[in-house]
Amino acid sequence: MQAEQIRNATALAPSVAIPARLEKALVKSLPEGTAFELQMPGQPLWRLGDGTVKFRVIASTKTGASAIKSLDEIRIAEAYLSGDLDIEGDLLAAFDLRNSLSDSHMLAYLWSTYGQRLFFGQAASDRKWVNQHYDTGADLHLYFLDKQSRCYSHGYFERHDEPLESAIQRKLTTAFDSASIQPGMRVLDVGCGWGSFMEFAGKRGARVTSLTISNESEVFCNELIRRENLPCEVVLEHFLEYKNTERFDAIINLGVTEHLPDYPATLAQYSKLLKPGGRVYLDASASPRKYPFSRFILKYIYPGNETPLHLPSYLDAVCESPFELYMVQNDRISYMLTAKHWAENLDSNRSIIAARWGEPVYRRFRLYLWGCVHCFATDDMTAYHWMLQLSAGNAGRTALTRKTPATILKRTRRALHS
Question: pTM here?
Fold first, then answer.
């Protein structure tokens, strides 16, 4: 309806050429052979780029037009959320324009990434941030996650055309088998989400303790335990604050490393909670840089110091821990395919989501999920699954712990970096 009103108004408006600065800025990031159309209020339809038109950007108000002219990513995103701006056609192709946009809100970035943790502490800040993201309601997430296990982390795909449910079941089976879990074993599940691994392992006889700091997640998983009669429990507590007198046989962390950016503290907690010789199985999204998130993500999706795994600094922390890296595997394509399934599921349920939570909530998750697809497709983001094993001792021998020039310089570099 908005697009039709704009076209009708265009017939009465004088024709004005697109500002040269705006055209130059937007066209420079388009892939070769790609074009898009831009509609401003009361103006003709402008075509930018050479080649096939992939999408159309429609500013229906002065607010939307001002956002586009600003070339500020967060202003454009907020105009889309409010309906002052629309995108028709291939939203994934529209994300190619991001290199034409600015994202330079330094003070907001520093406050989200460092300030809140400094003033309020990691655990207290996490409770606030996680509840903001996950406590929108379990039902909302269930409209785009896989139907079988409700897993809010990536599946492991063997083919591009296989169902999301198959990839998720492969992931859960891989985690269970890789950690050598047997019936009766005590397993710690870090971040239970909507109970995907807890249910999978519990139905195979494992005694799972699932940690969460989301009230919605706790209620959902306790009901799941009751309904399925699982030998499991849910504990509403932050992983870094959790204490248990009896060590676990295995630890599973599926998609929660992003919420635990202090790698030395996280590894130290694993070592306190795990039996010698036990395994920690993990997977996560990853990035070449730590704390890479845009202002949109920090404001509307993860408003804190969450960060994709930064593998180099993580492995550096592993080297200083009692853990051995057992294996690591790249999952970038699998996460791209997972995010694509989620985005398509969200779009197919648009009318339901918009009716229950409002159009802005639907649009917020739409930008988030299709943005993830774009980041994985362009290798701006990647993903891994990996496993650690806690040392069971050195067969009665003493490991080398003396100081050497190499160890002294390494500690000096780390102190300077900190």
Answer: 0.89
